[in-house]
TrEMBL record:
Superkingdom of origin organism: Bacteria
Domain AMP-dependent synthetase/ligase as annotated: residue spans: 8-369
Protein's name in the database: 2-furoate---CoA ligase
Species, as recorded: Bosea lupini
SUPFAM superfamilies from the UniProt entry: Acetyl-CoA synthetase-like
An annotated Gene Ontology molecular function: acid-thiol ligase activity
C-alpha cells in the first residue's frame, strides 16, 4: 500500500491544477501546495529533524497546519497535534510522553507555550506574524524554494499520533501507521460516496480524527479543503455559500448551531448534497430538522473512534433515528454482555452490552503509546473493547446507547441517557438536553435531565411529553434542571461529568417558565 506522501504525489499527478486548499486569501492548487510542502520538508532537514521524530503542533484549522501535516508525511515525521486550548501542564505532558523534537504554534497558543516548562528546550516554529518570538518562522520556511519532496516513509511507518481526551486520567496517545491512515481515508471516501472534486468544510480540528479524515479524503479525490480555523456558525454559512461546499462532516453540536443560526434561513446551502456526522449520537429532533433544511442525497451516521476509525455506518440516518447501522468496510462488530471478560460472551439481540470491534481491521491502531495498562484493558482476544454501550436490533442494526460509565442504574434498572435525550429533543421548547444519573439514597441514582430551553416550558410539561411519547416510567427524569448552556468539549461532545459535578450555569431566573 502507498504511504501518504506517495499518495499525495499521485494526487498531484492526477489533478495538478485542482483547487486543494482554501484559507481566506490563500487558494492553492495541488501542484502549488506540493511546492510549499516541499519547502517545509527541506526546512525540517535544516532543523535536524529525522524520520520517526514526533512533531507537535498546537494550532487551529489554518492552511499552515494542514501543510505541516502533509510535510510530516513526506518527511517521515510523526505528526502529533494537540488542542490549541491546551494548558501549559497539558502541553508538557504531551512533549514528555511523545518525546517531541519540535513544536509549531500560533498566537492563540503562544501564552500557554511561553509557560510550558519543556517547550523552551525544543526548536519552536512560529506560525503567523503575531505568534511571537521563536527559533523559526513558518513564513520564512516556505519562502525558500526546494526540490519536489520525495516521500521518505513506508506504509508501515508511523504517520500520526492523536491524544484521546482524558476524562479521569491522563490522555492516551494513539499512534497510527501510514497504511491505517490511508485505508481509513479510502473507506471514508467510499462510505460517504464522495466523488471527484468534492469540496468540504475543514472545521473539525486537525487534532481530532474527524478533521484528519476530511483532510486526507479530499486529497484522494482531488477535492478542496476549505479551512475554518475556529467554528463560527455565521462564518460557516458564508463559506458554504461562497465556496459551494458539497459535503459536511461534523459533530451534531455544530450542525445544531448552523441550522439554528438566524442567517441559515437566508443562506444558500443548496450546494451541500451529503451530510455526515460522528462523535456523538444525534437526537431525533435534530435529524428531522437537518433532513428538512438540507434535503441531502446522503445522510451518514458514522460511528467510530481515534483508535479504530470506523466501527459502523448508516447511510440513511434519518430513516431509522438512533441507528448506527452495520459494520463498516474494514470492520467486524460484536456486542458482549456488560462486564464480559472475553469477546465470546455475546449479548442477545436487543440486550444492551458493550460494543467491541475486531482489532485486525486495516484501519486499526495497534496499542496505546507507552500505556500497557490501557492496552490490557481495551485490547483482549484480538478485539478492541470500546467502552461504549449498545445493542443489535432484530434487523442486525447497531444502536449506540452511551458509555459504560454513563449508564444510569436506578432501582436495579439500566437506563441509557441517549433514549431520554432523544425523546426530550422532540419537544419544541427544548433547544438542547443532556441526561445524567445523580446519587440518591433510595434508588442508588435518579435520572436528571439538564435542559437548555428554546422557549418557556415547565418540568411538568416535559414530564407529560415523556409520558405521551411512551417513554417507560423508570426512564422518565425525576428532576429537571434548566441551564444556560450544556457543557461540551472543544469538538462538541457532551461533558456529562461536569453536570454530575455541578459545573454548569443555571438559567437566569427571568427566563424561567411561568
Amino acid at each position: 500500500m502507498f504511504d501518504l506522501g506517495t499518495s499525495f504525489t499521485a494526487s498531484v499527478a492526477r489533478t495538478p491544477d485542482a483547487l486543494a486548499i482554501v484559507d481566506g486569501e490563500v487558494r492553492l492548487s495541488y501542484s502549488q501546495w506540493l511546492a510549499r510542502i516541499s519547502s517545509l520538508v527541506a526546512a525540517f532537514d535544516g532543523i535536524g529533524l529525522k524520520p520517526g521524530d514526533h512533531f507537535v503542533t498546537i494550532m487551529q484549522n489554518r492552511w499552515e497546519a494542514a501543510s505541516l501535516h502533509w510535510a510530516c508525511q513526506f518527511a517521515g515525521l510523526i505528526m502529533t497535534p494537540i488542542n490549541w486550548r491546551a494548558k501549559p501542564d497539558e502541553i508538557d505532558f504531551v512533549l514528555e510522553n511523545a518525546g517531541a523534537k519540535a513544536i509549531a504554534f500560533e498566537a492563540v497558543s503562544a501564552d500557554a507555550m511561553a509557560e510550558s516548562a519543556l517547550a523552551a528546550g525544543l526548536p519552536l516554529i512560529a506560525v503567523g506574524s503575531d505568534a511571537g518570538p521563536a527559533d523559526f518562522s513558518f513564513g520564512e520556511m516556505i519562502a525558500v524554494e526546494a526540490p519536489t519532496a520525495t516521500p521518505r516513509a513506508g506504509a508501515g511507518d508511523w504517520s500520526l499520533m492523536l491524544y484521546t481526551s482524558g476524562t479521569t486520567a491522563k490522555p492516551k496517545g494513539v499512534p497510527r501507521r501510514h497504511r491505517a491512515e490511508r485505508m481509513a481515508a479510502l473507506a471514508h471516501v467510499a462510505q460517504n460516496l464522495y466523488g471527484s472534486g468534492e469540496c468540504t468544510l475543514g472545521v473539525m480540528p486537525l487534532y481530532h480524527t474527524m478533521g484528519v479524515r476530511s483532510l486526507l479524503a479530499m486529497s484522494l479525490i482531488g477535492g478542496s479543503f476549505v479551512c475554518l480555523p475556529r467554528f463560527d456558525a455565521a462564518r460557516a454559512l458564508e463559506l458554504i455559500e461562497a465556496e459551494r461546499v458539497s459535503n459536511l462532516y461534523l459533530v451534531p453540536t455544530l450542525y445544531h448551531d448552523v441550522v439554528h443560526h438566524p442567517r441559515f434561513a437566508v443562506s444558500d446551502v443548496s450546494s451541500v448534497r451529503k451530510l455526515g456526522f460522528a462523535g456523538a449520537p444525534m437526537t431525533d429532533g435534530l435529524l428531522g430538522k437537518l433532513t428538512e433544511a438540507f434535503r441531502p442525497e446522503l445522510f451518514v451516521n458514522h460511528y467510530g473512534s481515534s483508535e479504530i476509525y470506523t466501527f459502523t455506518i448508516d447511510q440513511n440516518a434519518a430513516a431509522k433515528p438512533g441507528c448506527a447501522g452495520k459494520a463498516g468496510l474494514n470492520q467486524l462488530i460484536r456486542v458482549v454482555r456488560l462486564g464480559a471478560a472475553s469477546a465470546a460472551e455475546l449479548a442477545r439481540p436487543g440486550e444492551e452490552g458493550e460494543i467491541i470491534a475486531l482489532a485486525a481491521s486495516d484501519e486499526a491502531f495497534e496499542g496505546y503509546w507507552r500505556r500497557p495498562e490501557a492496552d490490557a484493558k481495551s485490547l483482549r482476544d484480538g478485539w478492541y473493547f470500546t467502552g461504549d454501550t449498545g445493542y443489535f436490533d432484530e434487523d442486525g442494526d447497531l444502536f449506540v446507547t452511551g458509555r459504560v460509565d454513563d449508564m444510569i442504574i436506578t432501582g436495579g434498572e439500566n437506563v441509557s441517557p441517549v433514549d431520554i435525550e432523544s425523546c426530550l429533543s422532540l419537544h419544541p421548547a427544548v433547544s438542547e438536553v443532556a441526561v445524567v444519573g445523580l446519587p440518591d439514597e433510595r434508588w442508588g441514582k435518579i435520572v436528571v435531565a439538564f435542559v437548555q430551553r428554546a422557549s418557556a416550558v415547565s418540568a411538568e410539561e416535559l414530564d407529560r411529553h415523556c409520558k405521551v411519547s411512551g417513554l417507560a416510567n423508570f426512564k422518565r427524569p425525576r428532576c429537571y434542571e434548566f441551564v444556560k448552556a450544556i457543557p461540551k468539549s472543544p469538538v462538541g461532545k457532551l461533558l456529562r461529568r461536569q453536570l454530575v459535578a455541578g459545573e454548569y450555569e443555571p438559567e437566569r431566573p427571568d427566563l424561567a417558565a411561568e
